[in-house]
Amino acid sequence: MHRVRAVSRIRDDCVLRRLVARSRAECNDHMGEQVWVGRGPVSFADVVAVARREAAVSLTDDALAAIDRAREVIDELAAGEKPTYGVSTGFGALATRHIPTELRAQLQRSLVRSHAAGSGPEVEREVVRALMLLRLSTLATGHTGVRRETAQLMAALLTHGITPVVREYGSLGCSGDLAPLAHCALALIGEGEVRDAQGELMPAADALVAAGLSPVELEAKEGLALINGTDGMLGMLILAIEDLRMLLRTADVAAAMSVEAQLGTDRVFAPELQALRPHPGQADSAANLAHMLRDSAVVASHRGPDCNRVQDAYSLRCSPQVHGAARDTVEYAATVAGRELASAIDNPVVLPDERRVESNGNFHGAPVAYVLDFLAIVAADVASISERRTDRFLDKARNQGLPPFLADDPGVDSGLMIAQYTQAAIVSELKRLANPASVDSIPSSAMQEDHVSMGWSAARKLRRSVDGLTRVVAIEVLTAARALDLRRPLEPSPATGAVVRLLRKAGVAGPGPDRHLSPEIETAVSLVRSGAVLAAVEEVIGELA
Question: Measuring CA to CA, how many Å separate 404 from each of 11, 160, 254, 385, 398?
Fold first, then answer.
């Protein structure tokens, strides 16, 4: 027995070292990353690299050539007599005002300054960087009419880690994310506040000087081209999809631990049963559960003919159906995001081949807003079933012989009673956040913009939803790990056992008298959010579906 435990400890240390080595290798791989804009649409991976890993950004020669062609059209129209929206007129409800040539540079500056009217807390750095990259991607299509030096300066801000301060409130998700994008455009003209690569707050003019950059003097159409896109809501959608893809696989890990520790059956996850309802996400989730529960002594202990458990509660038995539907919804949202990445969102747009500029409504955020709201529903429901699985562990009448609340000395100790309260509070909030933002609309700009998407608001609440789901899943993992320890000497499966060992190595202790739980919960949250829980499983049994 002692020899087995010693071998187990050596194996655990090796797994942890490999996980750390993998993390360091990934960090080293990302150092010096370069994203090129103009080789077709930017990808999800490009957005994540720039937003989260500070990748440098450059424009391709093809992108610069496309930008130059569109600019020629704008210069022709600016020199002509015919009024052109965004070039020689006011904006929104003021579009009927013709602006004389000598005031057009002021027109663009005034547009950026007046539209940089956000309020509230600072938006996260990763969101602003994603927003800037996506706006640059549209500029590179050659349909906006900016000059190459303006686009190049935006790329330089990203490369130098200069991040404009964007405020949380201000976008209605129509005519683009006007206020957030205007705060970014403000930095290009050397105004407003930014944070440098080290996160220090400073005037934009000072940050530009420190980086050896010069502000631009906006010319005809440029101010409008910089602020008229769905880039903020799209950036947040892409980051949420990235997070949810990982979280939903981690939710499968949590579910497998719960099924195992609650003496549930793995027979319901058989592929022939899933094939009767051929949703791809369901099949993948069920395959993950079956794979993780393989070789579990806990499952094997009640698999014989004397087992009277005919079927498990829905929260255990139907995990693949719920997690699978969530997966399929995320992939639908990814399809919408992919279409948006391939778009040129601006108004008016330049059609260089036809030497003209045309107004349009492509800036309306409805397609993105709808799926942002849809994903908030997904986050709420996956969190809801996770909380129900957790709650079953704590109820003596339903936890198959475990102590009440998994407490060491029930009555003296409360065990994980209040951890479930925390889950319940988060799930309740996630249900409120699942109420769609996109069904609301408040007219603006003197009724010129009389129907808006509220897509930015949908994106902001989705970020909170993803954080909440992370915390709920982490508490389920923490609870299930304690229950698996209480099932000993029966051994969990190699996959779930790896998660238990990861938690214990990270300082989340096993069963015992009551202690301060909050730090342990936060540790579990960090392990889930970083992908370490998922990595621990995949290190043992290979990549999950």
Answer: 33, 55, 20, 20, 10
Task: From 86, 91, 81, 55, select the one nearest 70 (Cα to Cα).
Answer: 86
- The sign of the torsion formed by the CA atoms of 178, 183, 188, 190 equals positive
Residues 366/455, Cβ–Cβ less than 8 Å: yes
Q: Positive or negative, the Cα torsion across 391, 394, 396, 398?
A: positive
Q: Are 524 and 477 in contact (CB under 8 A)?
A: yes
**Can you tell me the distance from the alpha carbon of 466 to that of 539, in angstroms, rounded to the nearest whole number?**
25
User: In terms of DSSP bridges, do strands 119-122 and 163-164 run parallel, antiparallel, or are they unpaired?
Assistant: unpaired
Q: Are 302 and 262 in contact (CB under 8 A)?
A: no
What is the spatial distance between Cα 68 and Cα 352, in angstroms, rounded to a whole number? Answer: 10
Residue that is written with structure tokens 């009767």 in the block:
276
Give yes or no: 85 in active site: yes
Given 85, 314, 332, 421, which residue is catalytic?
85
68-112 confidence digits (pLDDT tens) = 999 999 998 888 777 777 787 777 667 778 778 778 788 899 999
Q: What is the dihedral of CA 191, 197, 198, 200, to 10 degrees?
A: 0
- The type of residue at 533 is V
Which residues does residue 56 pair with via DSSP β-bridges, in sequence order? 34
Q: Which amino acid is at 232?
A: G
Written as six digits, the tokens of 430 are: 């996630």
Q: Assign residue 415 a region: left if phi > 0, alpha if psi is -120 to 50, beta otherwise?
A: left
pTM over 0.90: yes
Task: Specify the pLDDT at position 242.
Answer: 98
Instruction: Give the C-alpha separation, 248 to 238, whole Å.
Output: 15
The one-letter amino acid code at 298 reads: V
